[in-house]
Queue: 3 jobs
Job 1
Amino acid sequence: MSGAAPKGPRLGLGLSEDVDLLRFEQQARAIEAAPGPAPATPREWIRQNLFSGPVNSLLTLASGVFVLFLAYQILSFVFVSAQWEVVQVGMRGYMIGSFPVDEAWRVWASAYLVIILAGLSYGVSARRLRPSAGQVAVGAAAAAVAGAVVFFTAQTPLVRGLAAGATPAAIAGALVGRLFGRKILRPLIVAWVLVFPAIMIIVRGFVGVPPSEWGGFFFNIIAATVGIVASFPLGLLLALGRRSEMPVIRIASVGFIELFRGVPLVAWLIFSKFVVDLLLPPQMVIPDIIKAFLVMTFFSAAYIGEIVRGGLQGVPAGQYEAARALGLSTTRMMALIVLPQALRSTIPAMISHFISLFKDTSLFVAIEVTDLLAAARRSASSLLYFGTDMETLLFAGLIFWAVAFSMSRWSQRLEVRLGVGRR
Amino acid sequence: MRVLRAAGQVVFVVVLVVIAREMYLNASFALGSAGRELSYTYLDSRAGFGIKEHVLGYSPNQPLFKAFLAGATNAMLVAAIGIVMATVLGVLIGIARLSSNWMVKKIALVYVEVFRNTPLLVQVIFWYVAVILAIPRIESSVSVFGLAFVSNRGAALPGIRSGADFGTWLLFVLAALPVAATVWRWRSRVHERAGEPHYRWLLSLGVVAVLAGAGYVLLGDAFRVELPELSAHGYSGGLQISPEFAAILVALVVYTAAFIGEIVRGSIMAVSKGQKEAAQALGLSPGQQLRLVVLPQAMRVAIPPINNQYLNLWKNTSLAFAVGFPDLINISTTMVNQAGHALETFSLVVGTYLGTSLLISVAMNALNRAVALRGDTA
């Protein structure tokens, strides 16, 4: 059990209840994971779980009819009436927007970098994590869908080959990772830290592609990553500032956090486009997209500040006292004793923030960025494919969902491994 | 050390003030070179643009201030209805997640995983374009016994129009409230003393209904029920719901309910198992166990995170821009496009969002204090 008791009434605009939500879920999962009664025969199972009484039987029948109806509707749409050609034609736009085609290798290189790193990391950690039969089945199903999409939508043999090559690349990474095991853990962590700057150099460097031309799903991922990476240092400062003994610093931090959390991201994005220029010196000209990233960084930092504060509150007072007793200065106490413990416990909340930020990147359409969703809308509005709103929305939604869902699953597994809520 | 800290804080304040002054000067200079100045007087000038939906009444001849107000009230209306509906749906989802019925449990699980892992914007557009605009056109409206109509131009339901004596009738209702409260207290006392069933909901509501009904009969023209009519131009009369309003409302409710459902599930599971077993031992029915024992305790832990979901819902009304519903953001961008004054308009937007968020938080904190255990003020 976590030491944090339910918090009493606190006045404020946002506060750290996201952290509370995660705590609830952790508790709920822990209770669900507890061993239940012995498994029954299939017949008994059906009776107990579906037809234990008249009300239950009625519920089962009603929901069964509902599920069948929905499944029929969805399947008949997906396999019979849907015009998937629009997705086939629009795929490049969905992935990279108006990114110049000749420069697309930069995106491929970045993607491969991440895929190989992910494979390596999986290989290193897989010694402890053996996939169950169910996981293999789900993975195979996901791979089948992804493979079908690739072979249906890829326009040239090169693209087809590159997309198909992702799987062997990931597997090769996993095998290499397995070979070296935990010996390469440290270099791997360093590589993950460097991967974002590296991608920025690949995309932007060597007469690269300016941010104003980034688009599609690539944009969604980059924007969410910027939102986390760039705002982390500021968020850390805000969390420490909020707990500072100096009233001015504390008030400024609280004001910053509440201001940015209290107003929706759409409003901040519009602010970045229409208002920021007014506040800057006239000779200072910043591209729209950079201003938007800056404002999003502030927005995200306010949330990260609250997450880290939640983590700091979870560090027992004894840790501070012990550090003091050892004669550590405040800076060293924070850097060596408190923050490592606090940050470790915030990882699930950080991933959850990343997921919601990732979903929120679709809001950049408000300042005319063609992200995945906007590209999907655009392809549905072309004369040739008029009336394909359902197809394009479902496809874009599926991609967002797949990423968000698998990240939330990954975060649940991490929780178990980090022992969050149990230490 | 103390001196150093004080000096540090002073420097910090000075830096902040310098930055703020610099921004102010930049803004005044930018506006000045455009022949404008930083002021809010533009809000009194004629708006000149139409707004499709408004609660308090609005016409293009009214000042910009009224237009802004129309946007703000539209957003608040969506949020208010959305909060109520999302809470009801969320609690149902949360309970369904814990159902002993496998089928119901899995449906609730799929619901939660689908809706909370998809961007809200995708959902808003989906409800608008793929669902609401796809229902039959107005010429072939679906009619519900001639009382209500549904088509891709929205829905029209029977509405209530206030009559000439509406004000007087409200006095009747107001007068009924203290009487109902007295009845409530009397029944509670009887219940506590003698253990008789209290029926306090039934009796208090009955008192209000009887007095309000008497007022309606006596006055003759308190209000009328107005049925919508279908004409060549669309609907007239009754309570009309536009497709845009319906889309943003449904999307917000469905999305937020997924999160509230998870909170409710978590807090029900946080109630110790012994409580439910004790309720069972006392012979309460499953419904009573949930309503009288488990939910009231679960509510205590659930309120702070649910408050956060309410705030999110309020802020997410800003996604109405995607379907053209005239909310705060939509109206403000129109205002800026028509009349300029981006900085001033934006400050109003920030103020409205923060102010309303604060109101929601204050209300929820009051509720939290009301249901908190005595002495549990940690």
Job 2
Amino acid sequence: MSNVVTPAILHALLKGAILSVQLSVLTYGLALLFGLIAALMRRSGNVVVKGVARFYIELFRGTPALVQIFFAYFATPQIFAWLNRLVFEPLSGGRVLLPPHLSPFAAAVLALSLGYGAYLSEVIRAGIESIHKGQAEAAASLGLGGRDIMRFVVIPPAIRLMIPPFGNYALALLKDSSLASTISVVELTLSTERAISYNYQPAMMWAAAAVIYLALSMVGSFLFSYLEVVADPIRRRRGRPLTRLEPVSSGDGEGDA
Amino acid sequence: MSAQNRAAQNRAAQNRAAENAGAENAGAALIALEGVEKHFGSFKALRGVDLDVARGEVVVVIGPSGSGKSTLIRCINGLEAHDAGTITVDGIRIKDTRDLAEVRREVGMVFQQFNLFPEMTVLRNVTLAPMRVRGASRKMAIDIARRLLDRVGILEQAHKYPEELSGGQQQRVAIARALAMEPKVMLFDEPTSALDPEMINEVLDVMKDLAAQGMTMIVVTHEMGFAREVADRVLFMDGGRVVETGTPEHFFQNPTEDRTKLFLSKILRH
């Protein structure tokens, strides 16, 4: 048994798991940013801006994540070389601006974040559009401007609606991060494969990898359940007595915390 | 053009003249509509409505569904953009968005579905607009909110969230929220139509109280009792036009138009 589960193998799995989490968290953050931008662009009145957003969403929803990752890793060197030669060198007086290639990690982050950004933009758009028009009308009739209406009246309840689908995509992304193994990012899947080539225990090692993914998913799942509670003002307050009006300032502050 | 429309226009002209002369007497029209039209695609929701509302006047608008009553009051604070005619509120003519913001500060609105902000406590619902739009300090806004919530009988619920309140309580909060902007006019769009019967009166009582204190109000409602008791003038609309207008006595006892009689016979039968 001693050569089956060595400290080196445990260490490799741990490092792989950490890299999977890093890759997923960074990718998800960027995906939220891309999704937000695309959702705002889709709500724009400008046809071109709207069209660009639609094109982006359709392109990335309609192609496999694996193809996107291969494109980001294997196709970019060629494209970067063209761009350097045809655009950047002439414009910058002979300097080469783009690197010869992306690192495997960068390529995986780029491809997955653009892909998940496309999905998340639809979640964001659906959330915003599902807020009853009457809320915005009531705010407008009180004299609030468009920005205040978004900030105070539309966004907070919309975010509450977005949290469950956000959670779904976060878990899906954690699992899709394993695709990065195909371009030699040594995350959990690839480190498992490599460990098996040392100890020849595929059953045990793949089961271990599955358990680690499951554990990470459950952490994510709990996190999003917690966010749901935090975002719901009434559930957030549960268990605490209703603040009376008398200590108005402290009571209100507590509600906002 | 009917004699009625001409009469309305004459009144409007007189009122404008009075306002130009700088007179702020109680008879001056606070709201003046002239030939207002509104289309939704090919559907004509308003076909040339003239209406003057004086300061302190309570106008109740009744009529069958689809007659344009809601559209009429939604045009007054610009929630719907009118397609023709002019709308003037307290001397400000609604033309573009800058006028709209100014008008909306002066015009409170209460909706059928309450439209409270669900993520905010009752208190925050009422303080938001004074703080963001009028630039009131937090303390000032809370003082105003407490006074108004007390007035509508809901002060002890100030730290609850809207969904924890009954429909009648929510609508009273909505009234307090609109009043917090200290509007010159209050518009009510079927404020009791979404309420359980036993909650209707608590809302109507608040509205009666408001009317008694001299608030200028335009109320779209099916509550004929309220119209009889509180209205200075009743307006009957059908097919996007004002068919008949008069005091509640005239209106309920000797309506002149056939369509008014038909409508009244349908709703007053039971």
Job 3
Amino acid sequence: MGKAAEGDEARLDRLIRQYWGPLKIFLVTTFPGLRDDADIVLQEFAEDKILREGWLKRADQSRGQFRHFLKTSLRNFALDRLNRAEVKHPPVSLDELEGELPGAEAPSEEFDLIWVRTVLAETLRRMETDCKSPTADQPRRAHTWEMFRIRLLAPIFDDTPPVPYEQLIDRFGLRSPMDASNMLLSAKRIFKMHLNDVIKEYAEQDFATAAEVSALEEFLSRMTNRG
Amino acid sequence: MSELDSSEAVFKSRPKRLAALMEAGTEGARLWLPEELAAIFQHQMQAPVLLDLGGFAPGTAVRLKTLSEAQGLILKSFSDLFHHPSPPLELLRLTKDFAKANLDHSESGLPAEIVSVLYYTSIAVALVRLDTRISQLKDADLRHGLLWAKDQAWVDKETKALLLEAAEKISKETNL
């Protein structure tokens, strides 16, 4: 195995660990019968399927988004595993067999929802770590995270009103509205940069990253409109 | 929200909140709320002139310092500049250009209303204090802009008076 292949393997291994949550949710929602063995099946999937040389090449742009290709691969892997198990131990009733059959839409949406949550949680984790790094421009950078947290995150997650402008002035020693705007804009840019980085690790190309950001936004919009 | 639970919050949140978070990275959205304009304007008036204008026109720091210290009177803030009986014309021009540049590039994050009032106030001060026109706007448009700025609820009384005086000066001189 060449250096490039080793690099691909390490990258895929890291991605699988990172997205273990959505993969597991998708697996147990699609195949409830595998609930107890989900971690083992995922481990086998990772070792036998994903980490084998050549899988990544098939997950290229011509096969659609990485996220969808991963989902399809896992579904096929689990179906194949169930088929092999059924040959050895045929289901005793039609009900039992139907219980193993994969549904289509709901598990896929559940997977995508957990996926986007994983992406966003990782984005926030990296942003916070980055902003609090002692090697960064401190205390300005730490203030940037704090500004993002109290001005944007808290209103979204806690339903609290944004901290008023006049309180921000004292809290962060802001010298002018331009200074305040620059800090808030910096926070947004840092968030966007980490979001793109997290997605680019699996989407790879810039254009595919942009497409994936749009796809996740459209997915959330669809879910929101459904209520 | 405590400092450590952003990840937990993401995993508990419904799609609507996640969509709002995705949107947080968008720069086009308005940074500040309309009800914050009074505090922002007050802050702008107290902000050091050298800070904003120095950043706007790099390389002019020494010149700006000289101008703001002209006549032995130190102009620390925009308020000092606007309410000085004989403010340096060059500083007023720079302030107008700074405001115009921010109006033309909304990604600066400064509310358009704030920079518009800054823009018209610098013109008004030049007209009233120095009897000098630093804008090429047509008389009617300039008067309209000055009156619009004067009518903003969050503008302080002294600045309103300046804007009104400038608008009246144009009316007298042009029979508008």
